Task: inverse folding
């Protein structure tokens, strides 16, 4: 059993920044992948960024160069630093854990980019 709790979402103007955090608790494998997905109104949930237990990273093309994913393995926490935000980034952002096969999801945190 694993629980994921996201925080850090909010309203920001275009060009601004936000930092999301996700703290995982429970029976977490030492080998896992943590990441962020997002879902905008009327669109499918999509991968934003993922990071492995040893630091390997992958990003969606739409966020490369603007977003940075990182993690603290000791605290089972993953972060997403979002810079140069665009209105198109508006979505509910979900934390994800692959443990390593079974997937767990957080409840989501709203990110709204608007002037």
Result:
């Amino acid at each position: 059993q694993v629980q994921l709790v996201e925080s850090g979402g909010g309203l920001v103007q275009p060009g601004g920044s936000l930092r999301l955090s996700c703290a995982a608790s429970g029976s977490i494998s030492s080998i896992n992948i943590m990441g962020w997905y997002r879902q905008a109104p009327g669109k499918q949930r999509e991968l934003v960024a993922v990071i492995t237990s040893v630091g390997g990273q992958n990003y969606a093309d739409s966020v490369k160069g603007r977003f940075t994913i990182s993690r603290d393995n000791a605290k089972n926490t993953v972060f997403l630093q979002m810079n140069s935000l665009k209105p198109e980034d508006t979505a509910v952002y979900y934390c994800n854990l692959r443990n390593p096969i079974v997937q767990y999801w957080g409840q989501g945190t709203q990110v709204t980019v608007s002037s």
User: Anything to note?
Assistant: The CA atoms of residues 24 and 76 lie 5 Å apart. The chain has a mean pLDDT of 97. The first strand starts at residue 2 and ends at 7.
